[in-house]
Amino acid sequence: MATPRPSLQDPKKWSATSSNFTFVGHKEDVVVKMTSEKLASRLKTNVVVAAGIHWDEISAKDIEIIQHLTVRLSDQILKKLGRAR
To answer: Which pLDDT tens digit goes with each residue over 62-85?
Structure first.
């Protein structure tokens, strides 16, 4: 979950702080943190993102693809809500 706040570097811009719960051995926290903070800062509201990804023998390239697709998905959410940049 993430909550919006003024940026620590530039109070005129918005950022977000997040807390993540991750089960042992899982790595979804990377995409959840990235997505929740992006959505919270752009929407200026609290956001909860839940994800479960299971892929046996995943490669580094596959992880990159998932991260890229997650960014695209968050952009589509913002666009649908009329908040895309």
So the answer is: 999 999 999 999 999 999 998 766
